[in-house]
Specification:
The chain is of the alpha/beta class. It has 6 helices and 8 strands. It has a domain of 143 residues: Rossmann fold (3-Layer(aba) Sandwich), CATH 3.40.50.
């Protein structure tokens, strides 16, 4: 469906071109996989680029299965999970320590962009449950933006419907909602992991131009 993240980013940029050259647009990429796409979209739209720091909370018996997500200020959990409060609290503390370290890494040479009264476009390379992007949207909503847009190349139809129902999200742009969705990577020919070092380099090169 997509050759790589560059291809997906170019296709997303085309879908978002109505936001081009608007002074108050901020592209907020979810590290690490969302940054290659976010940089392409921000450059195409002549917009600012920043990162959203959040982490998924994995199921205790399958860490890849997200049961929620956490940011430095918010936490979101699936409605129908039956997981002990002690596990959630332990994971929240552990993940927030990781996020604090990532915050120091990504903002070595600059400060986060203020999001008040901005059109904030939150970008990732694809989503499954949508929990990480939902907690990110909640975090952004608390900063009183003008509008919150979720932009992703691929996601299950049910997840897109869930995002559309969220009161704190104004618009969802999703290029593909395939029927047989198992994982984001199945819809990319090249889906190599993006390291923090690569993501930071993309961000620094964007602002060096």
């Amino acid at each position: 469906m997509f050759k790589d993240r560059i291809d997906a980013g170019l296709q997303l940029a085309e879908k978002l071109k109505r936001y081009k050259d608007k002074e108050n647009v901020v592209i907020l990429a979810i590290p690490r996989g969302g940054l290659p796409l976010g940089a392409i979209v921000a450059k195409s739209l002549n917009a600012k680029l920043d990162v959203a720091l959040s982490k998924k909370i994995g199921h205790p018996f399958n860490k890849e299965f997200a049961i929620g997500a956490v940011s430095l200020n918010n936490i979101i959990l699936d409605d129908d999970i039956e997981i002990s409060i002690s596990y959630i609290e332990k994971e929240k503390k552990r993940l927030r320590e990781k996020l604090k370290k990532r915050l120091a890494l990504y903002y070595r040479n600059r400060s986060p962009i203020a999001l008040k009264d901005k059109i904030v476009v939150i970008i990732d390379d694809g989503i499954a449950t949508g929990n990480t992007i939902r907690v990110t949207a909640q975090l952004v909503y608390d900063r009183r933006p003008e509008k919150i847009v979720i932009a992703i190349p691929v996601a299950p139809k049910s997840t897109v419907q869930k995002l559309n129902l969220a009161s704190y999200i104004d618009e969802v742009v999703c290029l593909e909602t395939p029927f047989n969705f198992q994982a984001v990577g199945q819809f990319y020919m090249d889906f190599d992991q993006v390291s923090d070092e690569e993501a930071i380099k993309i961000l620094e090169e964007f602002y060096a131009q």
